[in-house]
Amino acid sequence: MKVARLVACLFLGIAALNSAYVIAQQMNGTSAGPPPITDPLAKELERCRQLNEKAASDERCDAAYKESRKQFFRPPTDYHPAPVHMNPGIAEPKLVKPDQSQDR
After folding, report:
1. DSSP states of 43-70
2. Is the pTM of this model over 0.85?
3. CA dist 83 to 51, 92, 98, Å?
4. Nearest to 67 by CA among 91, 40, 49, 93
5. What sign for the dihedral angle of Cα 63, 64, 65, 68?
6. pLDDT band at residue 22, thresholds of 50, 70 and 90?
7. Which residues lie below 8 Å from residue 58, measured CB to CB, with a gap of 6+?
8. Could you tell me which of 44, 100, 94 has the C-alpha nearest to residue 68?
9. Would you state the pLDDT for residue 33?
10. Residue 23, SS3 per DSSP
């Protein structure tokens, strides 16, 4: 029972130190915020998100939504899937053309 109490106290002590460290960072202003947005489309989409219901009647938001959908649904140009082998341990059979002289 003493070991369990020791482990619990150790865990709570580490949690308290971590909390104090986070609070100290926030008070010093050194906490890392979200990175600045550099993509023009992302900036426009963020502006539209802040407009809420007004974005539905904003032409720039409509154009940004359209471009975002176009980029999302566009297939990647560098994707070339490898051929699928259903039984990788077995060699692929060679296709033999039937002899046409037997059909006549």
Report:
1. HHHHHHHHHGGGGGG-HHHHHHHHHHHH
2. no
3. 47, 12, 26
4. 40
5. positive
6. confident
7. 48, 51
8. 44
9. 63
10. helix
At 43, which amino acid appears? K
Burial readout 35-74 (b: 16 or more C-beta within 10 A, e: otherwise): eeeeeeeeebbeebeeeeeebeeeeebeebbeeeeeeeee
Residues contacting 85, CB < 8 A, separation 6+: 92
Entry field: residues in the chain: 104
What tokens were used for 90? Answer: 């077995």
